[in-house]
Amino acid sequence: MYTDIVFPENDVRFIAINDNVDSAVQTDFDMTPIRNFFNELYARDTAKKIKSTFKMKGESGKHLSSNPPFGYVKDEKDKDKWLVDEKAAEVVRYIFKLCESGRGPLQIAKQLHNEEVFIPKAYYAQKKGKLYDGDPFKRAQSTVVRILENEAYIGHTVNFKTTSKNYKSKKRVDNPRDKQLVFLNTHPAIVSESSFENVQKIRANRRRPTAAGKLSILSGKLFCADCGAKLHYCTAKGFNPSQDFFNCANYRINMGTCSAHYIRNVTLYNMVFAHIKKMLRYVQQFEETFVRDQMHRMDKILAMSISKAKVDVVMLRRRDEDLNTLFKRLYEDMAAGRITAERFDLLSSEYEEEQKDLKMRIAELDDLIENGETQTKDLKMLLIKVRKYTDPETLTFEMLNDLVDKIIVHAPDKSSGDRKQKIEIYYNAVGILNLPTATEDDCIALHGRCKGKKKAG
């Protein structure tokens, strides 16, 4: 394109000394296009070999990045092994803690700057005894985001996260998740898995300050019962705290498709906090009863299904391996002339169809087993978080995020003449909790859980 079109059109003289090319000298036979063609083949072949080498390395579970992420260092004896750099790891843990307490990436970056925490480049320069040219505390918001979303900090290796369109392009594009390879527990974790999952939930429901610069800790957790949209936090600089309110985002953007579902922030805060305190008091006092009730709610049929699925999946995988062996023998029989090509096509198509169904069934059973085991794991994690909070005085963002999955707000009901509004609090792992009434609470305090009807006291 350049030598035949761009350069001649712009009166550019092209000289390649080593190849003895000069566009100003006319020759009867120009070897340049042929030479370019072979150079292109060489470059393509080299790129293919390099890509194949990286593919093999990535599929084996080894790290593909030349440098480990901030918080890790390479082992001097084994360069493929990562070790925790404890000083840098403390910064990573602090960033996750700030996010869990309700701060966004920009707020975290500003706080770290104010506290004079070194950015990664300045930290590495300091370790090497060099001076960093620039502000050593000013970090970009994107740097914080990359740390918060990096699965390496829970000990996992994720390979092939990005790719290029072809060997000529230097631009990297994100790979779909199903084309990435995840290897679990390949190196020491810096943050816990529960903390990482918490942060991902917060990032998925990230809150932004209003034009007035205000935030509500309930933002991102509230959803409309009728249309499923989030509830929007509404305030103004002149509002006092009792005037701030929520309404349906769908109603706000497109009036008429849903009702407002109006509810004051302070009212909702008090209702949610009161229920959380009651839940904490009940679970902390009667943990065994709570666990027994929740395990019972997980449905005996589901438990039996999981047990059966574990047996079935082993049998199906065994049959899948048998089919691979049959394919090989079938091909050998055709090659040896023991069966005809038509017979081979008929049998192989039947086996392929059966193997396709097997793989789908195995995937379904794996999902069933994983979901059942995740429920038990999540319940245990909820109990750990419940124990953190004893008689709290205020509702914090961290407490809300630890305990509550979402809050559903219904439209107000004025049919009785009074304004009544229903909210549903979905707790992590257990969903809606029907806690004992005040009378039942008194009864439990004296006698434990009542089997029959008893008067309070």
Can you summarize this structure?
The chain is of the alpha+beta class and 457 residues long.
Considering the chains and any ligands shown, give keywords for the structure.
457 residues; alpha+beta; three-stranded antiparallel sheet; 15 strands; extended
Count of helix runs: 14
What kind of sheet is the major sheet? Answer: 4 strands, mixed
The share of residues in helices is: 40-55%
Distance N to C terminus = 93 Å
| Structural class by helix and strand composition | alpha+beta
Anisotropy-based shape: extended
Layout of SSEs?
Blueprint: H1 2-9, E1 15-16, E2 21-22, H2 32-59, E3 72-74, E4 82-84, H3 86-100, H4 105-114, H5 120-127, H6 141-148, E5 157-159, E6 162-163, E7 173-174, E8 181-183, H7 193-204, E9 222-224, E10 231-234, E11 245-248, H8 249-253, E12 263-264, H9 265-285, H10 287-297, H11 300-335, H12 341-386, H13 397-403, E13 404-409, E14 423-427, E15 431-432, H14 438-447
Parallel strand pairs: 9-13
Antiparallel strand pairs: 1-2, 3-4, 5-8, 6-7, 10-11, 11-12, 13-14, 14-15
Q: If you had to describe this structure to a student in words, what would you say it looks like?
A:
The protein is an alpha+beta fold and 457 residues long. The chain is 49% helix and 10% strand. The chain is built from 14 helices and 15 strands. It has helices at residues 2-9, 32-59, 86-100, 105-114, 120-127, 141-148, 193-204, 249-253, 265-285, 287-297, 300-335, 341-386, 397-403, 438-447, and strands spanning 15-16, 21-22, 72-74, 82-84, 157-159, 162-163, 173-174, 181-183, 222-224, 231-234, 245-248, 263-264, 404-409, 423-427, 431-432. The strands form six sheets. Strands 9-13-14-15 form a four-stranded mixed sheet. Helix 4 packs across helix 6. Mean pLDDT is 83; it is low at 438-457.
